[in-house]
Design a protein that fits this description.
about 100 residues, alpha/beta, Pyruvate Kinase, Chain: A, domain 1, 4 helices, 3 strands, about 40% helix, globular
């Protein structure tokens, strides 16, 4: 099975420094993408310098989580022929504002 890991990012350099090493280490069979939402904290430069194997997609303007999430899903769908399964995970802060199903 082919796997893509798409990480949405906005000014998350500190979190990327903390967690991206593990994601890369334990995702050897996956293609890892950072979908950046116009960060101003050097997130993109950090990833380029320390993780050249990670693909970066940069949105030139901050469109907010919902719209950029849709764009990240569109990115994943472009590769749908190459990936058998798509799942999305979000942190508690994002889910706290989501309507209950």
């Amino acid at each position: 099975m082919k796997i893509a890991v798409v990480i949405l990012n906005w000014n998350g350099k500190q979190l990327l420094e903390q967690f991206l090493p593990s994601v890369v280490q334990f995702s050897k069979e996956a293609t890892v993408y950072i979908a950046d939402n116009a960060s101003t904290d050097d997130s993109v430069a950090f990833v380029k310098a320390h993780f050249p194997e990670v693909s970066i997609v940069v949105n030139p303007t901050n469109t907010g989580y919902a719209l950029y999430d849709v764009k990240a899903v569109e990115l994943a769908q472009k590769f749908k022929a190459n990936f058998e399964k798509f799942e999305e995970f979000a942190n508690e802060e994002i889910l706290a504002g989501a309507p209950k199903a």
